[in-house]
């Protein structure tokens, strides 16, 4: 493969996406607002662009992997891809997807709604799950890209303009928030009651309440290792996106609201850039 793909955003997810696409044989051009992050990819065969417009010039496919809807819209406007370009949107943007769809329509871009499930390690291993909605005509082009960055693609809609994939991502994030705080609060209570937290983990391990996520986040807390797979601040942002969408749908999300507040407290205590498992610290006043 020699097809050119532009990647806008080379953070925790974007950098391995660009790297894995390059390994799969695509000609990758990458741009990031903080240039040093993109420059780190040069050794992986990725061409680093000085601007978003330079990255997308002549590229039939543009991928956005940025923090939120406003940053995605700012980047794609600056890039100004040509009409007919396939725009693959991997970021978690919530209901802001509607504004992105409107911009794609204005500019004649083919919009593929494709947020990913997974954090740093799955991204690095090319094991993301791609939640995708897009027209049949674009699928043949983008499926090889998804195969390079993910272990599975779940097509949930035949029109990227439906926003179906972005809304599914909000549902999944609701579950992630519940799991994260469930582990954190249980371990915080163990500390408060003088219970050996390893006994809690031992009881759960191998039983019906066990899962890989529980093992990863409980291990992070017990080891006091908050190397970022997905940050507290980004988790708080995702919780806000869930709440905004739920409010418009008339659905109460009491647990997510409490979870958002916990992430915010952990961030205020200085843990915003750490892994979302550091929401654990929201349980303590010290």
UniProtKB/TrEMBL annotation:
Record domain 3-hydroxyisobutyrate dehydrogenase-like NAD-binding: where: 163-278
This protein's UniProt keywords: NAD, Oxidoreductase
Cross-referenced InterPro entries: 6-PGluconate_DH-like_C_sf, 6PGD_dom2, 6PGDH_NADP-bd, HIBADH-like_NADP-bd, HIBADH-related, HIBADH-related_NP60_sf, NAD(P)-bd_dom_sf
SUPFAM superfamilies per the UniProt record, alphabetical: 6-phosphogluconate dehydrogenase C-terminal domain-like, NAD(P)-binding Rossmann-fold domains
Pfam families attached to this UniProt entry: NAD_binding_11, NAD_binding_2
Superkingdom of origin: Bacteria
GO MF terms held by the record: NAD binding; NADP binding; oxidoreductase activity
Active-site residues from the entry: 169
Domain 6-phosphogluconate dehydrogenase NADP-binding: 4-157
Family (UniProt): Belongs to the HIBADH-related family.
Record protein name field: 3-hydroxyisobutyrate dehydrogenase
Organism of origin: Amycolatopsis thailandensis
